[in-house]
């Protein structure tokens, strides 16, 4: 490696890690302002967030919305992928296009459309409406990932199973789903990470019960605080743990 | 055409996803279109075929400004991100030893997983008057007084670039690494310098990947509300910020809907501009 | 253009693995040399050293009389035909073939003329504006050859150039490669693991194994009188008959072998299937004696038979017999072998 390459790599890493570094470092600040000089370490802000009822409730809501909406998105996406890949459907190109379409529209616009409909129908905003929105944004991803991994290899196995007398339900449950497990799991976890972190749809479509990003947003209005650093660091750590876990276990066999 | 059992079964599997997309994506979209043609009289909504909102876009300066600001920021971010990410992806793909590549790549996109709201907040920490950058520059004697970095367009662009550099490193790296290594060897063997190899072989072959990444950056950047809202301050507003203002303080849903459709129009135009390079089926 | 190639004392390690061991080799100007060996024998590594893609840890490479050991590929008078061809997919065939000239700063008109000339040489004159993906494997191979020759290299390096082609095409491309080499007169160094390919085209074969040169010489010599047991086995099918040296005399199950022993202790006598004949014993022949036919099959140019000699009932010999008579199972044939066709090596 030449000197210039090393220098660029180091500069890039400083840029990339500057905000995360500042975030994590000043979460251990002892004073009440998360700016230099560092006067920690102290764990008081972690204690503060763990005893903050609103924040912990929001965290739980986020988890709930992420898991439920992802489960729905993966199930619907799998059904559509199976139906389109395994059965000759007239107009299937159009259907595929329609299913992928939400991916090309910004979250703000999807949220706005749903907000207008919910208000016109006089329905209330809740975690459920936010979850519905999250399914809309994650369904195209789940569909695309699972559809792309449905190859001829599975199809031959499915044919063999049918040939041996399995009915459609057993073919799906005993052959297709287990063979596609890596893709299904990847779609699910990607969906969970995106939903868990999503702000604008949750912001538009929730009211009293809010998700974590929305709660963090409202805390942010009162300015810089080490408490925000602490919750931010915690969320980052959890995400990184999931990514590292995926990298070392689930995705290892796919290379 | 008769519907075979097979076809019916296929529809059965696909129907739930299709219905969900129709009910919660297509219908809201149509309603939003209708809403953009409605108008407000005081606090009451009047449906109809009014073009007030679109006329307002042409007349009201703050709406015009928002579109210009959004475009300026998005284009700056897209160009700067590509220019910064390409060398980084290149170094990881061709200069870092093979067995370290996966680790270096993973490390260079790890902060990607910081929560979306928190990432902008973290940049606020870094760029604040009392923040890391100002303190560091004073300590180094580069400046005497703290300079204003946060709540500027510079801060917005920095926050965006940080995010999109990571995204683009990933897509460009994937592009570079899938090129057969013999392309580079063949070019060098035939007398090409490192720059000529890049200019005539590597760049043309990675252009579709770069353009796909750039388009993705454009789309995600122009529709984003959080980053300019947290980092940009209130001196200039982007289109998403103006939309949120209409929803909040003024409850002017028709104007918000019209602005949303304009935003989609811009994305469609960008798609047409990028279309000759895009391989969206390969994302 | 053509030049000789001299390799002097080249050694190279990948980590602790010694990929090249004391390689010294002299290739004459205009010679067609093949580097032959199993995968992992170092032949491709040696080719990379010649092309400049790999700087050897020790030793020198001279082209003509210039030391090229530390010269980058772009500045060497060598070009390479890659195994995967490495044709640039975004360029027409003409631009691919003209690429090297373009890099050298030659004008469009001249380089297009040269590219068309080279494409005509390989029989693709009419396809100049096509893209690589429109071609078959054999055609891509020709374009790669034309591209490498367009810059008038002094030495052309070919890395398993026919490896991706099916057998029939490979045989016809061999003849074509040889014809093109004669026409341009450039030194060709050709890596392959196919000994038939090597014999078909090479002026000289260099047999490699485990990073070492085992043997080198004209194909007929290497086939008939290989310098090592490895070279003998790699050049074609071989019967291995255990032998032994006692008091300077070599003996095997079929009696004394009138040859000096290469070493003391256990030896291996090698015998090509076609060297086994039906006939009478005489002074300059090894008398294998009566052997029972286990099975025999007609192959067109010969009959291939598995035979169990009565002198060594646990041995099975493979013989290629004249095609005019197909023996039946359990027939007994009286077999001999010319002593000139025997190889004798120390047991490894």
TrEMBL record, chain A:
Q: Name one GO cellular component term.
A: plasma membrane
Compartments annotated for it: namely: Cell membrane
Where does the secretion signal sit in this chain?
none
Q: Which residues cross the membrane?
A: 7-28, 59-85, 97-118, 124-150, 171-196, 228-246
Q: Is Transferase among the key words of this record?
A: no
Q: How does it sit in the membrane?
A: Multi-pass membrane protein
Primary localisation category: membrane
InterPro entries documented for this protein = Bact_Polyamine_Transport, MetI-like, MetI-like_sf
Alphabetically sorted, this entry's keywords are:
Cell membrane, Membrane, Transmembrane, Transmembrane helix, Transport
**Superkingdom of the source?**
Bacteria
**What does the entry give for GO biological process?**
transmembrane transport
The residue ranges of the ABC transmembrane type-1 domain are: 59-246
Q: Which family does it belong to?
A: Belongs to the binding-protein-dependent transport system permease family. CysTW subfamily.
This protein is called ABC transporter permease
UniProtKB/TrEMBL annotation, chain B:
The organism's place on the tree of life at top rank: Bacteria
Q: Which Gene3D superfamilies match?
A: MetI-like
Q: Which InterPro entries match?
A: MetI-like, MetI-like_sf
* Compartments in which it is found: Cell membrane
The record's section on Pfam families has: BPD_transp_1
Read off the PROSITE patterns from this record: ABC_TM1
Outline the extent of the ABC transmembrane type-1 domain: 67-274
Listed A to Z, the keywords are: Cell membrane, Membrane, Transmembrane, Transmembrane helix, Transport
The record's annotation in CDD domains points to: TM_PBP2 (cd06261)
According to the UniProt record, one GO cellular component term is: plasma membrane
| A GO biological-process term | transmembrane transport
Query: Membrane topology for this entry?
Result: Multi-pass membrane protein
Give TM regions.
12-35, 62-91, 103-124, 160-180, 201-226, 253-274
Q: Which family does it belong to?
A: Belongs to the binding-protein-dependent transport system permease family. CysTW subfamily.
Name recorded for this polypeptide: ABC transporter permease
Q: What is the lineage of its organism?
A: Bacteria, Pseudomonadati, Pseudomonadota, Alphaproteobacteria, Rhodobacterales
Automatic annotation (TrEMBL), chain C:
Q: What does the UniProt keyword field contain?
A: ATP-binding, Nucleotide-binding, Transport
Q: Which InterPro entries match?
A: AAA+_ATPase, ABC_SmlMolc_Importer, ABC_transporter-like_ATP-bd, ABC_transporter-like_CS, Mo/tungstate-bd_C_term_dom, P-loop_NTPase, Transp-assoc_OB_typ2
UniProt KW ATP-binding keyword: yes
Which residue range or ranges hold the ABC transporter domain? 5-235
Q: Which domain of life is it from?
A: Bacteria
PANTHER family given in the database record? SPERMIDINE/PUTRESCINE IMPORT ATP-BINDING PROTEIN POTA, SPERMIDINE_PUTRESCINE IMPORT ATP-BINDING PROTEIN POTA
Q: What is this protein identified as?
A: ABC transporter ATP-binding protein
Q: Give the molecular function GO annotations.
A: ATP binding; ATP hydrolysis activity; transmembrane transporter activity
Checking PROSITE patterns in the record gives: ABC_TRANSPORTER_1, ABC_TRANSPORTER_2
**Could you tell me which SMART domains the record lists for this protein?**
AAA (SM00382)
A cellular-component GO term for this protein: ATP-binding cassette (ABC) transporter complex
Q: Which GO terms describe its biological process?
A: quaternary ammonium group transport
């Amino acid at each position: 490696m030449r000197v210039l390459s090393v220098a660029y790599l180091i500069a890039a890493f400083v840029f990339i890690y500057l905000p995360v570094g500042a975030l994590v470092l000043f979460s251990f600040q002892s004073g009440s302002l998360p700016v230099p000089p560092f006067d920690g370490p102290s764990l008081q802000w972690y204690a503060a967030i763990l005893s903050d009822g609103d924040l912990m409730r929001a965290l739980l809501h986020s988890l709930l919305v992420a898991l439920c909406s992802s489960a729905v998105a993966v199930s619907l996406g799998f059904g559509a992928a199976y139906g389109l890949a395994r059965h000759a459907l007239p107009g299937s190109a159009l259907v595929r296009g329609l299913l992928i379409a939400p991916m090309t529209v910004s979250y703000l616009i999807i949220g706005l459309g749903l907000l207008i409909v919910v208000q016109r129908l006089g329905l209330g905003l809740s975690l459920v409406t936010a979850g519905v929105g999250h399914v809309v944004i994650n369904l195209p991803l789940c569909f695309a990932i699972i559809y792309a991994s449905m190859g001829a290899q599975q199809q031959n196995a499915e044919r063999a199973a049918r040939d041996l007398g399995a009915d459609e339900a057993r073919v799906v449950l005993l052959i297709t789903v287990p063979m596609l497990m890596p893709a299904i799991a990847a779609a699910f976890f990607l969906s969970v990470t995106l939903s868990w972190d999503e702000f604008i749809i949750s912001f538009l479509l929730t009211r009293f019960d809010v998700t974590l990003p929305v709660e963090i947003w409202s805390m942010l209005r009162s300015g810089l605080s080490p408490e925000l650093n602490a919750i931010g660091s915690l969320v980052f750590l959890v995400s990184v743990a999931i990514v590292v876990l995926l990298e070392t276990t689930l995705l290892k066999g796919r290379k | 055409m008769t519907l075979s059992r097979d076809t019916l079964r296929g529809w059965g599997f696909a129907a739930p996803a299709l219905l969900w997309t129709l009910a919660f994506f297509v219908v809201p979209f149509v309603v939003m279109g209708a809403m953009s043609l409605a108008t407000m009289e005081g606090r009451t909504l009047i449906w109809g075929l009014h073009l007030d909102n679109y006329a307002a876009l042409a007349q009201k300066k703050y709406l015009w400004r928002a579109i210009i600001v959004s475009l300026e920021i998005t284009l700056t971010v897209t160009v700067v991100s590509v220019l910064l990410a390409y060398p980084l992806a290149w170094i990881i793909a061709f200069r870092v030893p093979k067995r370290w590549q996966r680790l270096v790549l993973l490390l260079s996109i790890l902060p990607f997983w910081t929560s979306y709201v928190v990432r902008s907040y973290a940049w606020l920490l870094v760029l604040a008057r009392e923040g890391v950058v100002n303190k560091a520059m004073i300590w180094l004697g580069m400046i005497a007084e703290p300079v204003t970095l946060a709540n500027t367009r510079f801060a917005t662009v920095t926050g965006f670039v940080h995010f999109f550099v990571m995204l683009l490193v990933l897509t460009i790296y994937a592009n570079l690494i899938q090129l057969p290594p013999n392309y580079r060897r063949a070019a060098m063997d035939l007398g090409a310098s490192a720059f000529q190899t890049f200019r005539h072989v590597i760049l043309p072959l990675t252009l579709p990947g770069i353009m796909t990444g750039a388009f993705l950056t454009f789309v995600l950047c122009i529709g984003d509300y959080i980053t300019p809202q947290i980092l940009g301050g209130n001196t200039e507003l982007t289109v998403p910020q103006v939309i949120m203002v209409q929803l909040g303080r003024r409850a002017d849903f028709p104007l918000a809907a019209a602005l949303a459709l304009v935003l989609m129009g811009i994305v469609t135009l960008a798609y047409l501009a990028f279309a000759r390079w895009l391989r969206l089926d390969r994302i | 253009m053509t030049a000789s190639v001299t390799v002097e004392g080249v050694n190279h390690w990948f980590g602790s693995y010694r990929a090249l061991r004391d390689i010294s080799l002299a290739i004459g100007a205009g010679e067609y040399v093949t580097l032959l060996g199993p995968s992992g024998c170092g032949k491709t590594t040696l080719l990379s050293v010649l092309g400049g893609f790999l700087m050897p840890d020790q030793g020198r490479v001279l082209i003509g009389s210039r030391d090229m050991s530390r010269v980058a590929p772009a500045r060497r008078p060598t070009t390479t035909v890659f195994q995967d061809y490495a044709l640039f997919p975004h360029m027409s065939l003409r631009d691919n073939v003209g690429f090297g000239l373009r890099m050298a700063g030659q004008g469009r008109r001249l380089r297009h003329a040269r590219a068309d000339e080279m494409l005509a040489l390989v029989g693709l004159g009419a396809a100049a504006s096509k893209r690589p993906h429109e071609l078959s494997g054999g055609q891509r191979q020709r374009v790669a050859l034309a591209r490498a020759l367009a810059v008038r290299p002094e030495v052309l390096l070919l890395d398993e150039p026919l490896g991706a082609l099916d057998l029939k095409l490979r045989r016809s491309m061999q003849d074509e490669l040889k014809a093109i080499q004669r026409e341009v007169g450039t030194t060709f160094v050709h890596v392959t693991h196919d000994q038939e390919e090597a014999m078909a085209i090479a002026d000289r074969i260099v047999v490699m194994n485990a990073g070492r040169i085992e043997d080198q010489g004209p194909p007929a010599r290497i086939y008939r009188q290989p310098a090592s047991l490895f070279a003998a086995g790699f050049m074609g099918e071989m019967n291995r008959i255990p032998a032994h040296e006692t008091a300077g005399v070599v003996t095997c199950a079929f009696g004394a072998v009138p040859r000096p022993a290469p070493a003391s202790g256990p030896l291996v006598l090698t015998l090509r299937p076609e060297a086994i004949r039906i006939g009478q014993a005489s002074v300059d022949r090894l008398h294998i004696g009566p052997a029972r036919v286990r099975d025999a099959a007609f192959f067109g140019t010969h009959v291939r038979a598995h035979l169990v000699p009565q002198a060594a009932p646990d041995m099975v010999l493979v013989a290629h017999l004249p095609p005019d008579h197909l023996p039946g199972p359990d027939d007994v044939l009286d077999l001999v072998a010319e002593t000139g066709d025997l190889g004798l090596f120390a047991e490894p």
